[in-house]
Design a protein that fits this description.
single chain; alpha+beta; 4-stranded antiparallel beta sheet; 6 helices; 15 strands; extended
Length: 319
Amino acid sequence: MADPCSFRQTDEKHASVKVEKMLWSPTMDLIAVSNKTGEVVLHRLSWQKVWTLAPPGEDIKITALIWRPDGKVLAIGYSSGQTILCNVENSTSIHTLQVKGHVTCLHWVDKYRQDKDHQKEKTEDKDEKTELYRDLSDTFLPKLSPISKSYGAISKEQSDDVVDDSKKLKDQTDLNILVVGSDIGEVELYAFGIFPIGSLLVTANIAKEVKIISACLSEDFHLLTVVLQERSKDDECSIFKMQTFKSTIIASRHQELRALALKCGQIATQLSYLDATIKQMCESWEDVLVELDAKLAKFAEEKMVKRLKNSYAPIKYIY
């Protein structure tokens, strides 16, 4: 009789390129797979390919993968220092972060939600504070008009909802924070993966190089735990350390940070909409100029032909 606690292989899948990293979605039957060519391939549980994302440049490797807690956005860290946030539905980039050095680790944590019994015990002051930071932008800002998909300003695969929520923030009720570590000893914190809210430089002796191996923020936002590697510039010996930092300022002001980050996301959405609109106007004006040039050329040609015909008209003599 087989041990009920043992592992048993149920299936086997093959990949055409060497796989380096893979990560399951926390909410859906999706798995993100990165290979040695720098591509990210999204598969379903049945191994059906959903989409493939090419690397942002040549000789750029993927160093980290992380899902947003709701599974709607995938963050991809690269050796170039870029972290690209991708819409899971169509692989389009919704935001790009840039850090110094190489991205070595990613961690995305959602604010811990207390159970309903604890929610009922909240004081009136906290309820008033929650109401104070409630987002009312939909009440004052009109809904953005859809952008025509006949030009390159917006992908034809994108829905009209992307225009109003290009940063995928509308359904975010609680604050979540993306933690990005680099190979130069820096840790960056981003609210909703977009708005920078903190930076930590883990310094060591000047003669040593520091590389962040792992950086995790607790679910209550009170502690930031960092695992780092110290290596002497003259010696190949490495020392691994784990350090914990208090981040109570983030925990105590998470509502303010959430409100500020949402406003930042809305401003970024408006700017993206303006850029797409201006780009579409430029493309449309170029088409108008091309069409006008063609019509003027045709008109000039017809005029020239008519003038040539009149110049060679037979001469009529009057007697």
